[in-house]
Amino acid sequence: MLCEQPRECQTFPQTEEGPKYFSFVPSLPPMQTMFSNNLSLIPLKNLRFLSQFNHLCTKTLLPSDPLPHSQSQDPANGPSSHFSKKIDDFPMKISAEAQSHLEVISKEGVLDTLLSHKLDPKSALKFFKGVERRRGFVKTVDVLCLLVHILASSPDTYGVLRNLLNNYVFADSSPTVRVLVEELVACAVRYNFESDSRVFNYLLNAYVRANKITDAVECFRLILKHDVVPWVSFMNILLTTLVRRNMISDAYSLYDEMVQRKMYGDCFTLYVLMRACLKEGKIEEAEMYFSRAKGRGLELDAAAYSIVIQAACRRPNSNSACELLKEMKKLGWVPSEGTYNSVIAACAKQGNLVDALRLKDEMVSSGVPLNIIVVTNLIKGHCEQGNVDSALQLFEEAVKVGVTPDMVTFSVLIDWCSKTGNMEKAFELYSQMKLMAIQPNVYIVNSLLKGFRKQHFLESAYMVLDEAIEHGIATVVTYNILLCWLGEQGMVNEARHLWDKMISTGITPSLISYNNMILCHCKRGCMDDACSVKNDILNSGLKLNAFTYTLLIDGFFKKGDANHAFGMFDQMVAANIAPSDFTFNVVISGLCKVGRVSETKDMLNNFLKQGFIPSSVTYNSIIDGFVKQGAIDLAQSTYREMCESGISPNVITCTSLINGLCRSRKFDVALRMYNDMKIMGLELDITAYSVLIDGFCKVQDMEGACKFFSELLEVGLVPNSVVYNSMISGFVNVNNMEAALNFHKKMVENNVPCDLQTYTTLINGLLKEGKLNFASDLYSEMLSKGIIPDTFMYNVMVSGLCNQGQLEKGSKILKEMDGNNITPTVLIYNTLIAGYFREENPQEAFRLHDEMLDKGLMPDDTTYDILVNGKLNKSYAHARA
């Protein structure tokens, strides 16, 4: 409904040029004057034509002048009477200048003629089009508004009305929206038109179509001000446009203004508002609009439910999404494929796989085919719960029913297979996707490289890298994965080769690349080369960071060079690079490595003043340092200080202490620590069990060792070589070779690699028992596996053979050592010399003495004692073994 017209809009201020807001043509001179010198040139028929339009051409009228249609049409009273008297007297011609003036028409004449066609919109439109083509005619606001109201009075001209407003608003010369709206209101009042909201709604839509959104917003507010109700469809179009142009706050504001007038829109209005909220990440607001619409009794459709379900899924709140989905189905709406996808994804993301799988089956049973989006989300859910096998099974089932995997699906599976160490399956999937013409991206390549790095499959990693380089997808991150791997292994030559390859492919090394090279040199103890790389960083224009300096500090400490380590720390501080907690921990750990554990307390207090916050890593280094020095009391004191500081010990802390306690034969305290770990909820790892088992084996308490070995198996841990070697050594020391050999058999069955220590311990035990054949078989087995004996192993072999009177075989071992470029020890020569004296072969004994001298070995007191007394002191031999 139109409000009452404001007083200032009912009349127009007068000026010399005419009413305000309008453009006018100049007033014409009186016809008598205009034709005074040319009447003889005007044909009779033209004068008759002019007499019909004298009310349009005589002069410009102001609103206060009488309207043209009120003038007398009596020929005797007007200008036409004058011309009529002259028509028969002579023929007349009109000049070109006069003709152009005759084409100009006044605004008042147009208004008057339009009003005369008020009840015939088509006729009014026809007249307007004719006038509009005349030269000099200016389409003024009041003329337009009058025509608009006339056209709005008939359904036959609604389309014309809409096009008229569209064209007018598109024109750059149109007045401001406020002028146009106010004149439309004033015009309706002035000429007694019934108020019709159509006019204003068409105008609103015209501004939107013309992409004049700011004007559209102002138009919306102006028509609301005049109590015109915007049509819901046009309001929705405006709101949609605002949201698309990110004018979302304006959309909210306009809707609030409508709500104040109890106008809430329809379901589409709700869609627009909820999507605007989702676009801004305002999930709760989207749900609020939905709840309010539902509370008002708006009949919500499937689309409304789909959007609010998406909102719930974005939280994600899978329970709410499932409830809304159930409610939607009760109302008879069939969820779309996209809705099912969203809810299943939300359930999988929250680990609610039961509902996710149920919804998958429900979707398929309702006729919606299984799609790759659902499959991928379910695969993600299984993987994030650590159930990669179920994810792989689901993948195979989906492929069988015709679902084609995409890049994302393969990425998820390859990444998780790589993380869990199943590199065989990861590479199989990698090959499968290539056969399907899906080119792996750099994310997949990097996942594979990380997996190969964990499994130490360097050859496979290089193959994948070469393919990535060939397809141009390798990045500096790709190279850094391998550089870090080579750096950790100290494989300098390989790292340099990879560096050259990276440079040759046009990839610029990052600071991480340089840091990996520094790590590689530090691992090899080549600190000069590491410092050279540091200089290369500066020359490249990159800036050193805390990690660069920390690697160098750690490298110097590991080499035992504390002075250079602290010198590097001072350089770091001088360069205004703040040490990180990692740096402080490396310094503390470094002091412990070089045996300066007693200095750590003062150093720690100094670091605390610089803002360092100690962690379990800090205290673990100090505790382990004291343990290695045999200062178990100081280690326990540090442990108590750690707990009093509010820092919770971890498995490494307790394992280090248990190790020290076992070394100090404090098994009762070690067992208390073991029980404390369980009370604290700490799960013992393989290292912790290894320390306990080794401690009990060393004191020959094999019952206790077996108890922890069984517990290790019960908790699902897999014994490693260290654990098996402790058990084997323990049983050998108690002369139980049968049990020792059984543990060796278990190692082989469980594919646990036997190392040199394993074979040395077993062969020593077998030789002591005189089981030379078994010992020889194990030795051959060891050599077949490529394990090279060390000096200690040769000592064991020679000593064992000599004790069994096998001097000839012992001598062969001596020759084998020469062949392997291993220098025999004085103990080996002493053992053989003593053996030959026992066999009453002093010549061979003295020959071995001379051979020992020739090899640069200095005989010890035991050697001379043997040569004098003819035998080897057993206590000496046992001590050296």
What is the structure about, briefly put?
This protein has 881 residues and is an all-alpha fold. The protein contains 50 helices and two strands. 38% of the residues are buried.
Give an overview of the whole structure.
This protein has a domain of 78 residues. The protein contains 50 helices and 2 strands. The radius of gyration is 50 Å and the shape is elongated.
Main beta sheet: 2 strands, antiparallel
* Gyration radius over CA: 50 Å
Unreliable stretches, pLDDT < 50, 5 or more residues? 1-104, 874-881
Overall mean pLDDT stands at 84
Strand content: under 5%
Terminal residue distance: 112 Å
What is the helical fraction, as a range of percent? 55-70%
**Which structural class best describes the helix and strand composition?**
mainly alpha
Shape: elongated
Which secondary structure elements does this structure contain, and how are they paired or packed?
Blueprint: H1 31-34, E1 41-42, H2 44-51, H3 54-57, H4 79-87, E2 92-93, H5 96-103, H6 107-116, H7 121-132, H8 141-151, H9 158-170, H10 177-190, H11 197-209, H12 213-225, H13 232-244, H14 248-260, H15 267-279, H16 283-295, H17 302-314, H18 318-330, H19 337-349, H20 353-365, H21 372-384, H22 388-400, H23 407-419, H24 423-435, H25 442-455, H26 458-470, H27 476-489, H28 492-504, H29 511-523, H30 527-539, H31 546-558, H32 562-574, H33 581-593, H34 600-609, H35 616-628, H36 632-644, H37 651-663, H38 667-679, H39 686-698, H40 702-714, H41 721-733, H42 737-749, H43 756-768, H44 772-784, H45 791-803, H46 807-819, H47 826-838, H48 842-854, H49 861-869, H50 874-880
Antiparallel strand pairs: 1-2
Helix pairs in contact: 2-4, 6-7, 6-8, 8-10, 9-11, 10-12, 11-12, 11-13, 12-13, 12-14, 13-14, 13-15, 15-16, 15-17, 16-17, 17-18, 17-19, 18-19, 19-20, 19-21, 20-21, 21-22, 21-23, 23-24, 23-25, 24-25, 25-26, 25-27, 27-28, 27-29, 29-30, 29-31, 30-31, 31-32, 31-33, 33-34, 33-35, 35-36, 35-37, 36-37, ...
